[in-house]
What does this fold into?
Amino acid sequence: MKMSEILLLSILNTSFLAALIFSLSPFIGPTSAGVTALLCWFSTGILNNLVPPSMNYTPTIAYRLPLPDQWPADRWWYPVVLGFVAIVTHAVTRGSTSFAQRTFVRDG
It folds into this structure.
């Protein structure tokens, strides 16, 4: 595997996890969203090691490619779709976290 492929895999994984955190943070708070993203990352890693064919379907990508001729370009839509969900979520909630929403309701 070339260094550029490893870099692409890292960018796709990082962008997916960042979009997951930004999607969940208005609802469960930033700390809980970060913990959820870490659990998602670790659980898909464990799943990929226990059941190797699952590597073709999990949102985060292992550093070994699932099939010899398959480049991870088909995984770009996971972070893109979740990124749009994060944008819509922050537009609807005006970018506030659940703590800020509770504070606004209490003060307002």
Observations:
- The mean pLDDT is 79.
- The two ends are 56 Å apart (CA to CA).
